[in-house]
């Protein structure tokens, strides 16, 4: 019975998952080709596409999406690989992980605002240097953040993606014979970093390919970060789509739908470009590998470490900036710190924040637990019956498809079920994003787990269920908890899914933050941003602490395999 | 073969999903329904009213909370403020409900609305009504004295929305940095030319940005009355002076017009930082409020162009499929009570001007308004000057289009 359930488990997971996607996709695709009778569109036509193509600056926006997204993905990937090359065996790596986790957990919008607090012409860096060094008593009239070229957007994306890629890399590395490979390289006269780069990196790159694609898809189609960090006349495609959807003239809904379909194409194009780059660089790297160089050029370590350092510093300053703004009474330019400090942002406004806080917490907990169970069902079935891997890859669709592509259609579907505005509907919508990230983070370690553990246990007479509960699950506890923490952070940061499925009745910290950001009180944004970052931070702290507690109880101190 | 069966299941599922999309085809019409006030009072007790209203301002949110307490006490109606970033989100939500065939039991009972969004909902049959004329407190508005209230951006309201507040464009400046602010469009251009980078406005379609464009257009156009009927063949000729003006103004703007503040509050922040010298707001009490909240330097003051400034009315409306129409109507009526209107006009609470006619109020009610203080930076009704009417929405739609093509994305 249990076995049967598990055999069909992947189909159950997929159905739960694909129904809203397919419904949402249809609900977006039909209007993109002119069909939305509620708005008088009863004939299929290409008019929405003509209107889209004629919209001022739309191709610039497409190019900007592609360029910023790919630049951000490449930089984060390169910096993570560079950092690992030199510091993979450093005992600092473990600590770095603890420092980066909270940045990973900060919702995108909060991080973007934090970055504006630091980098804008009236931001913290200028304030610290003014008027002492600069002589400015007014902010300089230059565009730093937001900027017209998308530089600050790339920067913010890199800050956000480095910790994610680093975490999945570290999780994948645990299942790779890293130390042995490097030792072999060393014994052949290669330096440590070169050994890692030539022997471990290619294996690692293969294992984290899907997370990298997710990074590309996200970077190309991000909306909330792009709104905050691009200048109004130079938006990305995602921003344009949202603008069309918000247009009071309802005929723009057709253009928005066409834009959402185009966005899918842009994401696919970006992944394709990356893939081509991958093939080309493999060809080039093979030549480099065969040349047999034992050392890297001098200064490579600086090139690998310094940009990561600067980027982390900016991210950190942004977070501190949020914290300071949340305690600011009055903070006028060019004061380096608030002229008056105050608790009233926290105390007087706590009533306003208590409900969204509770809602955020419940939604994130429910969707994370559900996602963990579903991910394990899928992976365990795959491990036991050895198939379904290809089919399960379908649940990664929401990461490749831009959110806007199916959320409008999904909303219509939920309304049809009378499930919009219900907790179940919102948890379902969150699950569409929480599950893929959880699954993605967990799949590598799950598949990479040495099958000999299970085989040994089976030889000793353990049933498949016992193997799962007593061998696989304990061994995978750490990656599982990290995957859950990632899912938790995704849920906390979800904006569009909450808005669409929640009928606007479900208010979370994130919807509150975005609503407030149109009102512009930097102090309140600080409060909500700090809380938003605090929740996932807590989740990561738990993911860090629980395996240690469990291992301590199970084996006693010092017997765990690390 | 299990596989082919699965494939078949998927096909069935997809067909079913397409089936769920078919109700798109059934266009429901919101039939006119009259409102019987005594029955409404009875039915409303115990109803929960979901009010979708912009939630970006603390003081407004607090005011809405207070309205909730009062209607609970007096009418047993539970009011839930659904905070939205932009009411057009709600327009789309109701559209989605209509698309799904949900003609009753909708998720929105009341919405804060005006202008283009009202026109869009009215044109697409998404509104319940007419109900506004059946509200008892409607008597307190003298439409002879204030006929503007019957037209929302020149579109007849026809009782499909009930007024609850006014807005008027004002300019804000810091007296410590600027002694004599420019009081007409020409002077503004001269100031910007002499002080590059110190003037800006929010980018359309932000409502404050479009209001600024309308203001300039009114001041430059030869015959303002043309703006009150829909834009047609005359569009290019009428708006030509506006584009000439903007071509001269833009190179002198903050960041040379390569970026714009996103919102009114964004712009107030720029003024506070000293990045710009002049800000705009669509509420006469805005500057006083911002000073009160420590978000604006206390030497800031406001002014209105010599020609007067654009003003409009904002309303509440009930969607065609609202679940609690009676409760929503009772809230709309309460919003028009002297108690609620006076509290709203109190600058310590919100500072939004009333829509009631003082001549229709009794002495106690009028005293509520007479006793109100005025904020330090708020102009008196006389100083606020003439109110220029909103042009027909078609003007704005086309101006936004051209603006976008010339200066936007």
Automatic annotation (TrEMBL), chain A:
<feature type="transmembrane region" description="Helical">
    <location>
        <begin position="480"/>
        <end position="504"/>
    </location>
</feature>
<keyword id="KW-1133">Transmembrane helix</keyword>
<feature type="transmembrane region" description="Helical">
    <location>
        <begin position="210"/>
        <end position="232"/>
    </location>
</feature>
<feature type="transmembrane region" description="Helical">
    <location>
        <begin position="66"/>
        <end position="87"/>
    </location>
</feature>
<keyword id="KW-1003">Cell membrane</keyword>
<comment type="similarity">
    <text>Belongs to the binding-protein-dependent transport system permease family.</text>
</comment>
<keyword id="KW-0813">Transport</keyword>
<keyword id="KW-0812">Transmembrane</keyword>
<feature type="transmembrane region" description="Helical">
    <location>
        <begin position="252"/>
        <end position="274"/>
    </location>
</feature>
<feature type="transmembrane region" description="Helical">
    <location>
        <begin position="357"/>
        <end position="379"/>
    </location>
</feature>
<keyword id="KW-0472">Membrane</keyword>
<feature type="transmembrane region" description="Helical">
    <location>
        <begin position="524"/>
        <end position="546"/>
    </location>
</feature>
<feature type="transmembrane region" description="Helical">
    <location>
        <begin position="150"/>
        <end position="173"/>
    </location>
</feature>
<keyword id="KW-0997">Cell inner membrane</keyword>
<feature type="transmembrane region" description="Helical">
    <location>
        <begin position="12"/>
        <end position="36"/>
    </location>
</feature>
<dbReference type="GO" id="GO:0055085">
    <property type="term" value="P:transmembrane transport"/>
</dbReference>
<feature type="transmembrane region" description="Helical">
    <location>
        <begin position="99"/>
        <end position="119"/>
    </location>
</feature>
<dbReference type="InterPro" id="IPR000515">
    <property type="entry name" value="MetI-like"/>
</dbReference>
<feature type="domain" description="ABC transmembrane type-1">
    <location>
        <begin position="62"/>
        <end position="273"/>
    </location>
</feature>
<feature type="domain" description="ABC transmembrane type-1">
    <location>
        <begin position="357"/>
        <end position="543"/>
    </location>
</feature>
<feature type="transmembrane region" description="Helical">
    <location>
        <begin position="295"/>
        <end position="328"/>
    </location>
</feature>
<dbReference type="InterPro" id="IPR035906">
    <property type="entry name" value="MetI-like_sf"/>
</dbReference>
TrEMBL record, chain B:
<protein>
    <submittedName>
        <fullName>ABC transporter substrate-binding protein</fullName>
    </submittedName>
</protein>
<dbReference type="Pfam" id="PF13416">
    <property type="entry name" value="SBP_bac_8"/>
</dbReference>
<dbReference type="InterPro" id="IPR027020">
    <property type="entry name" value="YnjB"/>
</dbReference>
<dbReference type="InterPro" id="IPR006059">
    <property type="entry name" value="SBP"/>
</dbReference>
């Amino acid at each position: 019975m249990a076995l049967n359930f598990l055999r069909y488990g992947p189909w159950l997971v997929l159905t739960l998952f694909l129904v809203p996607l397919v419904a949402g996709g249809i609900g977006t695709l039909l209007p993109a080709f002119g069909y939305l009778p509620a708005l008088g569109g009863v004939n299929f036509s290409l008019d929405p596409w003509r209107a889209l193509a004629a919209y001022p600056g739309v191709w610039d926006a497409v190019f900007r999406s592609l360029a910023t997204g790919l630049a951000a993905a490449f930089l984060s990937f390169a910096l993570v690989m560079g950092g690992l090359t030199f510091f993979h065996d450093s005992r600092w790596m473990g600590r770095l992980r603890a420092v980066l986790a909270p940045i990973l957990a900060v919702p995108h919008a909060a991080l973007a605002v934090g970055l504006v607090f630091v980098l804008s012409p009236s931001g913290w860096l200028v304030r610290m240097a003014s008027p002492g060094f600069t002589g400015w008593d007014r902010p300089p009239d230059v565009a730093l953040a937001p900027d017209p070229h998308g530089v600050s957007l790339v920067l913010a994306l890199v800050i956000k993606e480095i910790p994610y890629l680093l975490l999945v890399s570290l999780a994948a590395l645990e299942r790779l014979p890293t130390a042995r490979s490097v030792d072999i390289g060393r014994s052949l006269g290669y330096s440590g970093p070169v050994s890692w780069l030539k022997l471990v990196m290619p294996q690692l790159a293969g294992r984290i390919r899907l997370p990298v694609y997710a990074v590309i898809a996200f970077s190309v189609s991000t909306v909330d970060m792009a709104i905050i960090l691009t200048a109004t006349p130079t938006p990305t495609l995602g921003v344009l789509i949202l603008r069309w959807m918000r247009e009071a003239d309802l005929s723009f809904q057709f253009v928005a739908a066409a834009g959402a379909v185009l966005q899918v194409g842009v994401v696919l194009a970006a992944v394709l470009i990356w893939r081509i780059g991958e093939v080309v660089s493999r060809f080039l790297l093979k030549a480099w590998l065969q040349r047999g160089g034992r050392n890297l050029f001098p200064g490579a370590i600086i090139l690998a470490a310094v940009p990561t350092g600067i980027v982390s510093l900016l991210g950190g300053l942004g977070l501190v900036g949020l914290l300071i703004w949340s305690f600011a009474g009055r903070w006028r330019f060019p004061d380096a710190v608030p002229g008056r400090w105050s608790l009233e942002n926290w105390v007087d406004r706590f009533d306003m924040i208590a409900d969204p806080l509770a809602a955020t917490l419940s939604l994130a907990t429910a969707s994370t637990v559900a996602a963990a169970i579903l991910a394990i069902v899928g992976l365990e079935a795959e491990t036991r019956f050895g198939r379904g891997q290809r089919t399960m890859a379908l649940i990664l669709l929401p990461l490749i498809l831009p959110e806007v592509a199916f959320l409008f259609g999904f909303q219509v579907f939920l309304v049809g079920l009378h499930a919009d505005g219900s907790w179940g509907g919102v948890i379902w919508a969150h699950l569409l994003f929480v599950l893929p990230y959880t699954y993605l983070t967990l799949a590598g370690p799950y598949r990479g787990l040495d099958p000999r553990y299970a085989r040994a246990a089976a030889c000793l007479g353990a049933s498949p269920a016992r193997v799962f509960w007593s061998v696989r699950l304990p061994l995978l506890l750490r990656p599982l908890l990290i995957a859950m923490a990632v899912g938790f952070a995704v849920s906390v940061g979800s904006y569009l899914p909450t808005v669409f499925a929640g009928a606007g009745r479900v208010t979370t910290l994130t919807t509150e933050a975005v609503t407030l950001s149109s009102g512009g009180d930097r102090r309140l944004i600080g409060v909500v941003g700090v809380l938003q970052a605090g929740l996932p931070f807590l989740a990561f702290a738990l993911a860090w602490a629980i395996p240690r507690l469990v291992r301590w109880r199970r084996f006693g101190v010092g017997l765990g395999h690390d | 073969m299990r596989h082919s069966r699965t494939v078949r299941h998927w096909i069935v599922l997809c067909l079913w999903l397409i089936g769920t999309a078919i109700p798109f085809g059934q266009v429901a019409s919101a039939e006119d329904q009259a409102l019987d006030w005594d029955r409404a009072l009875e039915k409303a007790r115990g109803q929960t009213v979901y009010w979708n209203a912009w939630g970006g301002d603390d003081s407004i949110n607090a005011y809405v909370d207070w309205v909730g307490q009062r209607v609970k006490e007096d009418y047993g109606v539970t009011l839930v403020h659904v905070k939205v970033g932009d009411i057009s989100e709600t327009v789309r939500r109701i559209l989605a409900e209509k698309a799904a065939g949900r003609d009753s039991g909708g998720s929105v009972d009341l919405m804060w609305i005006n202008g283009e969004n009202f026109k869009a909902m009215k044109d697409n049959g998404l509104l319940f009504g007419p109900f506004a004329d059946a509200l008892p407190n409607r008597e307190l508005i003298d439409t002879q004295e204030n006929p503007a209230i019957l037209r929302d951006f020149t579109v007849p309201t026809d009782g499909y929305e009930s007024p609850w507040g006014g807005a008027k464009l004002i300019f804000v400046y810091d007296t410590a940095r600027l002694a004599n602010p420019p009081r007409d469009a020409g002077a503004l251009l001269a100031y910007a030319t002499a002080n590059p980078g110190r003037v800006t406005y929010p980018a359309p379609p932000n409502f404050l940005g479009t209001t600024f464009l309308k203001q300039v257009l009114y001041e430059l156009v030869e015959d303002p009355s043309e703006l009150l009927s829909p834009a047609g063949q005359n569009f290019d000729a009428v708006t030509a002076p506006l584009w000439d003006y903007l071509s001269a103004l833009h190179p002198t703007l903050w960041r040379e017009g390569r970026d714009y503040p996103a919102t009114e509050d964004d712009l107030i922040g720029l003024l506070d930082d000293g990045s710009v010298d002049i800000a705009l707001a669509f509420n006469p009490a805005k500057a006083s409020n911002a000073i009160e909240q420590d978000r604006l330097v206390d030497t800031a003051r406001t002014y209105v162009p010599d020609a007067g400034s654009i003003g409009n009315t904002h309303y509440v409306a009930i969607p065609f499929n609202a679940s609690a129409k009676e409760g929503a109507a009772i809230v709309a009526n309460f919003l028009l009570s002297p108690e609620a209107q006076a509290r709203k006009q109190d600058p310590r609470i919100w500072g939004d001007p009333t829509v009631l006619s003082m001549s229709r109020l009794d002495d106690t009610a009028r005293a509520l308004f007479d006793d109100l203080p005025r904020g330090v930076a708020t102009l008196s009704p006389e100083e606020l000057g003439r109110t220029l009417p909103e042009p027909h929405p078609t003007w704005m739609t086309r101006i936004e289009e051209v603006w976008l093509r010339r200066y936007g994305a």
